[in-house]
UniProtKB/TrEMBL annotation:
GO terms for biological process: L-proline biosynthetic process. SUPFAM superfamilies: 6-phosphogluconate dehydrogenase C-terminal domain-like, NAD(P)-binding Rossmann-fold domains. It catalyses: L-proline + NAD(+) = (S)-1-pyrroline-5-carboxylate + NADH + 2 H(+); L-proline + NADP(+) = (S)-1-pyrroline-5-carboxylate + NADPH + 2 H(+). Pathway: Amino-acid biosynthesis; L-proline biosynthesis; L-proline from L-glutamate 5-semialdehyde: step 1/1. GO terms for cellular component: cytoplasm. The gene is proC. Residues 170-273 form the Pyrroline-5-carboxylate reductase dimerisation domain. NADPH binds at N62. It is found in: Cytoplasm. This is Pyrroline-5-carboxylate reductase. Its EC number is 1.5.1.2.
Amino acid sequence: MKIGFIGLGNMATAIIGGLLREGTVLADGTAVTAADLIGSAKTEATRQAKATQFGIAVTADNREVAAVADVLVLAVKPQFFPEVTTEIRGAVNENTLVISIAAGLTLERIAALFGRDENTMRLIRCMPNTPALVNAGCTAVCPGTGATEDDEALCLALMESFGHAIVIPERLMDAASAVAGSSPAFVFMFIEALADGAVEAGMPRAQAYEFAAAAVAGSAQLVLETGRHPGDLKDMVCSPGGTTIEGVKALEQRGFRAAAMEAVGACVAKAKAL
Ligand SMILES: NC(=O)C1=CN([C@@H]2O[C@H](COP(=O)(O)OP(=O)(O)OC[C@H]3O[C@@H](n4cnc5c(N)ncnc54)[C@H](O)[C@@H]3O)[C@@H](O)[C@H]2O)C=CC1
Ligand SMILES: O=C(O)[C@@H]1CCC=N1
């Protein structure tokens, strides 16, 4: 199976890194190897960097990638889709499974850009995130009406090879893009701020990042493994008259939760405007 990537930027890099990470296997036990992958990017520097980083085939010709790919991942920014789809539409095989990871672009719009019918084109929208690079990704998967059950199973197998993959209806894709695609950026900001607080209290910075990142990762794992309400788990930490509740109050006084909700809302609004 040849998997092609149009675009070798941050997200494609994370996906490729996850697919090729030691021990990553698909549902059928097979492993994706560098020989299965080919990618194109705008610049020679990017192409060479990814060829060196992953040992994959690279080309400047998007049409070459489109022509050989059994699974074609469109990993350019949404604003470049019209240019790229116009360029490759004659080269993409009718039987190629096309996976778009672009935020905001609907199945109908992507099929139309290929001059194809959404109900017959083998097309799936995915919304991955950069923790895919360390097999801790969370990907929303939205099969188009022209995608077969085998297409969905293959797409899930690829996305599950580097983390969680969840099938959702298209009406939730903008929310998924925000809460999972974009949220790592918010979490990185939170980790950085927690570490700054520790540095302010005298902890060496590198150690502060390790403590903050491990505590955030552990807290997320506690939610995922127990299924308990985050508020319940928060209450578990807040000892009566203790230290944590003072921090909770400081966050509430500054609108921490409202800010997080508004961050998600801003991402959803932008996705709908794309
Ligand atoms: N960065 C992230 O965390 C996530 C990004 N995405 C989606 O992934 C897509 C790519 O985003 P990023 O990787 O962040 O962007 P990026 O800017 O890091 O990478 C874009 C890539 O596209 C290439 N490119 C641009 N025009 C091209 C063309 N005409 N032909 C071939 N290659 C071309 C660039 O050379 C670059 O390699 C976007 O649609 C974005 O919405 C989805 C989920 C998460
Ligand atoms: O910022 C963006 O547009 C992309 C989509 C989700 C994460 N990054």
